[in-house]
């Protein structure tokens, strides 16, 4: 993300154009009223300096980095000098009649530079200095003089205030984007932990309890570590765990099924990844033609399917207590790739998902819904008690999937 706010650079560009245009305007007024000056050569000398200064400093005013406060002070000095020089080279009649000063409205550009650079307080100070110079040049508080001074003062303070608000908003936005990026990374790490470390610890705990003896003690320790890791995951503090990323390396289930790994770039046929999940209790139906997706999106979709099947294996049981039967249906729609995972288990009781998430069991929240959200897709879960559970995973076909994964 760019460090400078988006509204600032256009303001500097506008100020640069304003200075050049108002310099031309001051020169045109001088040429038009040349014969009315008491000392036309003196006025011409100042305007020549003004023109050279304006053109020579075009690049200095084009960005905040180049337009420093010392430069702005010198710029304001040029403007104030021209205002105070006006009664020396012009007639008292023209000044009393409200005639323009030598730099005319070019002076406002010097004040606006302070507004854009430093905010409304600097703008107020610069406009006050210009106002004093105009009052001295006019010899008093003439109506036209007061009107012009107030106009410059109010405009510069308003612009300075808007700039300060925009800067604050930009900082707030940058902070929010950093928090969002950190949250996404924590969720990714939490998914990796859920799909790898927690699965292994749960398996060790179950096997240790079944074997008994020293293995039971090992299983108990594995259970304690699983509970501690689930607490870290649910609190949003997920540590980096050594080992391969889930979804980027082959996934190994307790039954030994291995999901293949697509290439790191380009596209991948989703059928090749999902077919690895097929087994005695998992049926896979696929289209007859390849179903391509960007490799990163394909890996994440396959990992989400694996997480759904893990839930079936661990939580769904048939009428005789055996593992429930699961079906995977892959569909290639015009605008999306849709995978449906259905089982014939007892279904999920109402409120169970919310309770599991509160306990740190993030299989659905992170490993399934979190992955699909990062892909710009959706994960819909429908469960009817006694009639099984169905999870529909939808990944849009667009070129932004890999970009979403990188953010």
TrEMBL record:
Q: Which residue windows are transmembrane per the record? A: 12-31, 37-56, 68-85, 122-142, 148-166
Looking up SMART domains in the UniProt record yields: HATPase_c
Q: Which SUPFAM superfamilies match?
A: ATPase domain of HSP90 chaperone/DNA topoisomerase II/histidine kinase (SSF55874)
Q: Write out the entry's keywords from A to Z.
A: Kinase, Membrane, Transferase, Transmembrane, Transmembrane helix, Two-component regulatory system
Q: Locate the Histidine kinase/HSP90-like ATPase domain: which residues? A: 296-399
Q: Which Pfam families match?
A: DUF5931, HATPase_c, HisKA_3
Ranges annotated as biased composition (Basic and acidic residues): 391-407
Specify the domain of life of the species encoding this protein.
Bacteria
In this chain, the stretch annotated as Disordered covers 239-264, 386-407
Q: Which named protein is this?
A: DUF5931 domain-containing protein
* Organism of origin: Streptomyces glaucosporus
| Lineage, highest ranks first | Bacteria, Bacillati, Actinomycetota, Actinomycetes, Kitasatosporales
